[in-house]
Amino acid sequence: MNLLTSSNRSQRWDEGKQKAGITFVLLGFSEYPNLQVLLFLVFLTIYIVSVLGNLGMILIIRMNSKLHTPMYFFLSHLSFTDFCYSSALTPKLLEIIIVEDKTVPFKECMTQFFFGCTCVITEIFMLAVMAYDRFVAVCNPLLYTVVMSPKLCALLVAGTYMWSGLCTSILTYCLLQLSYCGSNIIDHFCCEYSAVLSVSCSDTSLSQLICFVMTIFNETCSLLIILVSYVFIVITVIKIPSKSGLRKAFSTCASHLTTISIFHGVILLLYCVFNSRSPSILGKVATVFFSIVIPMLNPLIYSLRNTEVKETIRKLICIKVNSHSK
User: Fold this and answer.
1) Which residue of 35, 152, 265, 312 is most buried, as measured by CB atoms within 10 A?
2) Residue 20 — φ and ψ, nearest 5°?
3) What CA–CA distance (Å, rounded) separates 194 from 176?
4) First-to-last CA distance in the chain?
5) What is the DSSP letter of 209?
6) CB 56 within 8 A of CB 299
C-alpha cells in the first residue's frame, strides 16, 4: 500500500515537473504584420483609458461621502473587477505584439487564465447584484436603506468573489489535468479556455462539457436575476405619472440593459456559439471587445453619466487648477 502511494506521488511529481517545463506560443494578431504598430497603439490607448477610468472611479467614490451608498459600493467593485481583468490580459497582448519571442510558460498561462476567468464570473454576478440593488431602490425606495444594509452589501460582494473563485478553480483544475504534447502554438493573444484546450493532446470532451454547463448555469442565474429585477422596475416605472420621470427612468434602464446585453452576448458567443471550427479571428475580436473594450466603457456607461460623479470630477479639476495657479 505504501509502495503504491509512493509510486503515485512520484508519478504526479514527474507530471508536475513536465508541465512546469511546458511553454505555449501565443500568436496574437501576427497574421496581420502590417497592422502591428497600429494595433499596439490602439490597445495601449484603450488600456490607459480603462485603467484611468476604473481607478479614477474608485477614487472618486471614496473621496465623495455622498457616493457612499450601496449603488456606488457595487460600482466601485465593478470598476475594480474591470481593472483587474484588463490588467490580466492587456499587458501580455501588448508584449507579444512588439517582441519576437511570443512564448509564455505553463504556470504563467494558468495564472493568467485563473485571474481572467475569476474577473469574468465576478462581473457576471456583480451586474446581477447591481440589478437587484436598482430593483430595491425603484420598487421599495422607503425601505432601501433598511434592505440594502452594509452587512447585506458586503455579503453579496463576498459571495460573488467566493463563487467566482470556486468556478475558476474547477476550470483551472480541468486544464491542469490535460496533457500537452504537441506544438503548443495557441492561435490567440491570451490563455483563453477553449484556446488552451485546442492544443491539448488529451480527450477534452469532459473539460468542454464542464465549461459549457458552468457557463450556462452562471449565465442563466445571472440573467434571471437581471430580467426579473428589470421586469418589476418597468412595471413600477410605468405607474409614474410624470412624463419626465418616466423618460429618465427608461433611459437609465436602457443604458444598463444595453451594457448587460453586450457583456452577456459576447460570453454566449465565446463559450456557447464559437467552437474549434469557427474562424480564429472571430474569437480574438470577441475576446478583445470583451476583455479590453468593455472594461473601458463600463465607467462611462455606469458612472460618468451620473450628475454627482460629474460634480465630483469638476470639483477635483477646479482644485487642481487653483493649486497650480497659486
Assistant:
1) 312
2) -65, -25
3) 14
4) 80
5) H
6) yes
The residue type of 223 is L
Under a CB-based contact definition with an 8 Å cutoff, are residues 195 and 188 in contact?
yes
Cell of 220: 442563466
Query: What b/e readout covers 112-122, taking b as 16+ CB neighbours within 10 angstroms?
Result: bbbbbbbbbbb
Q: Is 31 helix (H, G, I), strand (E, B) or coil?
A: coil
The more confidently predicted of residues 269 and 95 is: 95
- Percent of the chain surpassing pLDDT 70: 78
Mean pLDDT of 8-23: 54
CB atoms within 10 A of CB 297: 18
Q: How big is the chain by its Cα radius of gyration, in Å? A: 23
How far is residue 107's CA from residue 24's CA, in Å, rounded to a whole number? Answer: 10
Q: Report all structural domains of the chain as residue ranges with CATH numbers, in order of start.
A: 21-325 (1.20.1070.10)
